[in-house]
Specification:
- This protein has 2 domains: 36 residues, no CATH class; 98 residues, K homology (KH) domain (GMP Synthetase, Chain A, domain 3, 2-Layer Sandwich).
- 31% of the residues lie in helices and 34% in strands.
- The strands form 2 sheets. Strands 1-2-3 form a 3-stranded antiparallel beta sheet, with no helix packed on it.
- A hairpin with a 7-residue loop joins strand 4 and strand 5.
- Helix 1 packs across helix 2.
- The model has no long low-confidence stretch (mean pLDDT 95).
């Protein structure tokens, strides 16, 4: 399976426009002013990847999710290349019924341990933790 992406410099600052060739475009700004920075985009990608897994797995478990919010709190190394060293993914899920919390946690664990390709593309020494706040419908 192949993936592709491209970016083009806008000619101003560290602002780029990129995306899938021939597809939707997004602004990425190395200064984080005109759009998310590359590291923020990485965190957003990880969040969207694992959130997609959780929604998909929950559907297969027949859990009705009304809302899902995923906040990522990350820590980067102090020295260059200032790589990501730690991230916590805090899920907030509304929907389902009482008793679905453990099944949703299982969906999160499956994404974390097996399915999220973005998370599994990071260095193995990046510490990624999760938490879940569940509000039944």
């Amino acid at each position: 399976m192949k993936s592709a992406a491209s970016v083009q410099w806008s000619g101003e600052g560290l602002k780029f426009e990129g995306g899938v060739p021939g597809g939707p475009r997004a602004v990425v700004d190395g200064n984080g002013k005109a759009g998310p920075s590359p590291v923020t985009m990485l965190l957003m990608s990880m969040a969207a990847c694992t959130a997609s897994d959780v929604v998909d797995i929950a559907r297969k478990m027949r859990i009705t999710i009304r809302a899902l919010e995923l906040n990522v709190d990350a820590e980067r190394a102090d020295e260059h290349p200032r790589r990501l060293i730690r991230a916590n993914l805090a899920f907030r899920v509304t929907g389902g019924v009482a008793g679905d919390e453990s099944r949703l946690q299982h969906a999160i664990d499956l994404s974390h341990e097996k399915y999220c390709s973005v998370l599994h593309s990071l260095r193995q020494d990046v510490v990624v933790t999760t938490s879940l706040t569940f509000e039944p419908a």
